[in-house]
């Protein structure tokens, strides 16, 4: 599994109900089912990936986050996962709202557009950066809403979501030593993971401590 998938799996309690949005080939679903005893299923927009998942016996359906989450009932899952898909959806704010409507927790991973290498590439070349994480040219990328860690945290605060856990990591698998500073994580973290809860589940002192 990718690094973010391994870290996501560690955030999920065994035996819980999980919906993986943008499940790809079903790697995370398979891991959660076999090793953590979860009732895990997925939704994927790429029909080829859906076919691959179903061929391996995984419960994945064809659909997209922007339109199909509204069909799920309230509280249907314990965790709703959005892995490296936030920047590719049309309505990120609405997708997050739906995730925390149908799930008690939302887990979101995304590449950080605030990383120092991207800033320097834009500054000195004047062109959209290309890295191992942002690896498609601007005219062929599915990423329509790139965001930074600070952007995402600001959205969570606006919506009143409880940030229960967050971390910034690099693509090689190292957890950032600056994990307690959002500003440094925003500068040096290549990708981010957030575990979110509903506003009513958030302790006031915890919510305040996340606003740094």
UniProtKB/TrEMBL annotation:
GO MF terms, alphabetically ordered: methyltransferase activity
Taxonomy, superkingdom: Bacteria
Entry keyword annotation includes Methyltransferase: yes
Keywords linked to the UniProt accession: Methyltransferase, Transferase
GO BP term, example: methylation
Class of enzymatic activity (EC top level): transferase
CDD domains per record: AdoMet_MTases
Any one Pfam family match given in the protein's UniProt record, by short name: MetW
EC number: 2.1.1.-
UniProt cross-references to NCBIfam families, sorted A to Z: metW (TIGR02081)
The name this protein goes by in its record: Methionine biosynthesis protein MetW
Organism: Acetobacter senegalensis
Gene: metW
């Amino acid at each position: 599994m990718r690094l973010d998938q391994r870290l996501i799996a560690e955030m999920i309690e065994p035996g819980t109900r999980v919906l993986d949005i943008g499940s790809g080939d079903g790697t995370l679903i398979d891991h959660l089912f076999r090793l953590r005893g979860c009732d895990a299923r997925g939704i994927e927009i790429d029909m080829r990936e859906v076919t691959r998942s179903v061929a391996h016996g995984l419960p994945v359906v064809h659909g997209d986050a922007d339109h199909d989450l509204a069909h799920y009932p309230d509280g249907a899952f314990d965790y709703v996962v959005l892995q490296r898909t936030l920047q590719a959806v049309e309505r990120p704010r609405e997708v997050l709202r739906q995730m925390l409507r149908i799930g008690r927790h939302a887990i979101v991973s995304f590449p950080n557009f605030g990383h120092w290498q991207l800033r320097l590439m834009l500054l000195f070349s004047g062109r959209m950066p290309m890295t191992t994480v942002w690896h498609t040219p601007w005219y062929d990328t599915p990423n329509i809403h790139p965001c930074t860690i600070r952007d995402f945290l600001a959205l969570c605060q606006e919506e009143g979501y409880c940030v229960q856990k967050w971390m910034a990591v690099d693509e090689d698998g190292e957890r950032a030593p600056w994990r307690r500073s959002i500003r440094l994580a925003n500068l040096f973290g290549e990708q981010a993971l957030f575990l979110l809860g509903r506003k009513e589940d958030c302790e006031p002192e915890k919510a305040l401590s996340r606003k740094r």
